[in-house]
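Subject: design request, 592 residues
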């Protein structure tokens, strides 16, 4: 059973190293789930003397006002033999055999965190004491509750201390050690008052009565110790601490323990309670109870740890892998990012992910709609037809059909198709590559190149229609008996309106035939030159660009947000803590 307390000690120290000491956190906190014993009491309640009696050493700072200004996590380790020594977590390789130096280090470490302003901090100090004269036990010594601020302290110090103490003891896994002096009215006890607020039934509160030997003559604390004055689930324990005179004379702690036992066994009022009184008995009771509570909490701890490991792994996966340290690793990471981007891009095109349907919308809706909006009637108005036909005839009117006029009319109409055709290319793939920095730039550069090739090919289709007219279309037209011209009229009034309308109708029919052809061929050109090419060679372009990068440039490519890097590091350390705790707890669970 002793290894249960050692297990909790180890996890608590690891939690503190990560900055997890029970404060509000966005991450699950293992500290709050660990059973602990918090020592609560007002100033001058004898709290420090109780702790020193349990340890058997003078090691806590003393003085007027608020001396304890940071939580002290006191971990006691029973050893079989050897010299007693102490270790601080913040000084891992230093052993203290002089406990006066321990006292000084507690004061110095408090000042390092809080400064000399006499303010408080919730960041704990971890102190481990190894001795043959202790039981395996962990206690958290909290700042003493006070009613007034001393000189040099902010007015809020009273409420700040109360809030800190309450934050510790309101957690359901916290065992409360409430220290109250017997020479004061129990109803005014700061420890009992705040304990009652968070544990009204007294199910997790141990009452400790100090200064019993200093009570007024003719009074005693029997009603309190027997649970009649204020009932708790666990029996009250009375202790007799060293007096200030004893402390000044450096009275040996072992001798003080003997004198404490003699007091209870020789005082008639307390003789029947002597077997469960004293600091030695208090330490044993607390150690046994802490072990029992830890044992009962193991299944819950295992469940919490398993759940939290899953959450941490999930968030780490979302943040991505950490950046490799070497150039080869960086290159591999960038290549993997390129592959991922390329595959996502293909998935959008192929319909695995949404986005590819927009290409079809361009071909099926936008491009045909743009073609319909072309105003061929402007090109084929009677005035324009007459103008182009007569210009094409020159000084000599045509004999059968105005071939050059037809060509000019058709070319002027088909050239107007270049706008919608080019717009169909521009509407394609510009929006997809939105990856940041170099990857985005490389993708956009490559896609721009493909877009330009697609634009050229598409416009070439339009120009081909302009460059060669389909003769068969005109051969199937009914031949004019006469050209319809009147040579006696002026050059610009040579042809009648019906003849010109027939020409315009013929040209419009031909242009519509060309439009129908281009509606089928332009999408093919775009897909072949741009979409298909992007799927085939985008990744090759990425790799070609990567091959030009040096180590420093690769590192710059992977220069991610420092906040993300810090978050990933924090999560990785926390995950390591939880996995280690899981292994330790499972080993203890199997050992049971």
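Subject: RE: design request

Done. Sequence follows.
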């Amino acid at each position: 059973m002793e290894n249960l307390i050692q297990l909790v000690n180890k996890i608590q120290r690891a939690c503190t190293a990560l900055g997890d000491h029970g404060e509000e956190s966005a991450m699950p906190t293992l500290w709050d789930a660990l059973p602990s014993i918090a020592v609560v009491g007002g100033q001058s309640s004898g709290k420090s003397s109780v702790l020193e009696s349990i340890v058997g050493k003078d090691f806590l700072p003393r003085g007027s006002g608020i001396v304890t200004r940071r939580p002290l996590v006191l971990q006691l380790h029973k050893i079989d033999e050897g010299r007693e020594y102490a270790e601080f977590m913040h000084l891992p390789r230093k052993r203290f055999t002089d406990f006066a130096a321990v006292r000084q280090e507690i004061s110095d470490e408090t000042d390092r965190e809080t400064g000399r302003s006499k303010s408080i901090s919730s960041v704990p100090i971890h102190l481990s004491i190894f001795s043959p004269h202790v039981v395996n036990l962990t206690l958290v010594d909290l700042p003493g509750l006070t009613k007034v601020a001393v000189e040099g302290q902010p007015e809020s110090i009273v409420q700040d201390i109360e809030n800190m103490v309450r934050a510790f003891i309101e957690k359901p896994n916290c065992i409360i050690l409430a220290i109250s002096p017997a020479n004061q009215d129990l109803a005014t006890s700061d420890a009992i008052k705040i304990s009652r607020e968070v544990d009204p039934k007294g199910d997790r509160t141990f009452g400790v009565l100090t200064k019993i030997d200093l009570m007024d003559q003719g009074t005693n604390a029997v009603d309190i110790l027997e649970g009649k004055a204020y009932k708790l689930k666990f029996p009250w324990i009375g202790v007799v601490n060293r007096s200030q005179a004893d402390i000044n004379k450096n009275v040996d702690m072992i001798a003080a323990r003997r004198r404490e036992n003699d007091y209870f066994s020789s005082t008639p009022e307390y003789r029947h309670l002597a077997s469960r009184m004293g600091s030695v008995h208090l330490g044993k009771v607390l150690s046994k109870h802490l072990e029992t509570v830890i044992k009962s909490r193991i299944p819950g701890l295992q469940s919490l740890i398993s759940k939290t490991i899953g959450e941490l792994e999930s968030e780490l996966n979302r943040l991505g892998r950490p950046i490799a340290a070497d150039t080869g690793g960086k290159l591999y990471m960038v290549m993997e990012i390129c592959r991922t981007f390329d595959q996502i891009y293909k998935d959008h095109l192929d319909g695995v992910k949404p986005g590819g349907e927009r290409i079809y919308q361009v071909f099926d809706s936008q491009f045909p709609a743009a073609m319909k909006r072309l105003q061929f009637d402007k090109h084929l108005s009677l005035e324009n037809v007459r103008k182009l036909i007569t210009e094409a005839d020159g000084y000599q009117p045509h004999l059968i059909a105005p071939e050059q006029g037809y060509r000019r009319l058709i070319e002027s109409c088909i050239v107007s198709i270049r706008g919608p055709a080019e717009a169909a290319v521009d509407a394609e793939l510009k929006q997809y590559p939105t990856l940041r920095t170099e990857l985005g730039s490389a993708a956009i550069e490559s896609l721009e190149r493909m877009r330009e090739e697609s634009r050229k090919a598409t416009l070439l289709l339009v120009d081909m229609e302009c460059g060669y007219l389909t003769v068969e279309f005109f051969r199937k037209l009914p031949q004019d008996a006469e050209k319809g011209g009147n040579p006696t009229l002026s050059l610009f009034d040579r042809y009648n309106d019906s003849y010109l309308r027939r020409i315009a109708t013929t040209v419009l029919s031909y242009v519509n035939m060309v439009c129908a052809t281009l509606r089928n061929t332009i999408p093919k050109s775009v897909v072949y030159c741009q979409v298909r090419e992007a799927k085939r060679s985008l990744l090759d372009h990425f790799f070609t660009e990567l091959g030009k990068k040096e180590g420093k440039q690769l590192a710059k490519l992977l220069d991610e947000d420092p906040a993300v890097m810090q978050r990933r590091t924090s999560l990785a350390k926390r995950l390591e803590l939880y996995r280690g705790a899981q292994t330790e707890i499972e080993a203890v669970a199997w050992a049971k």
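Residues 57 and 252 are 9 Å apart (CA to CA).
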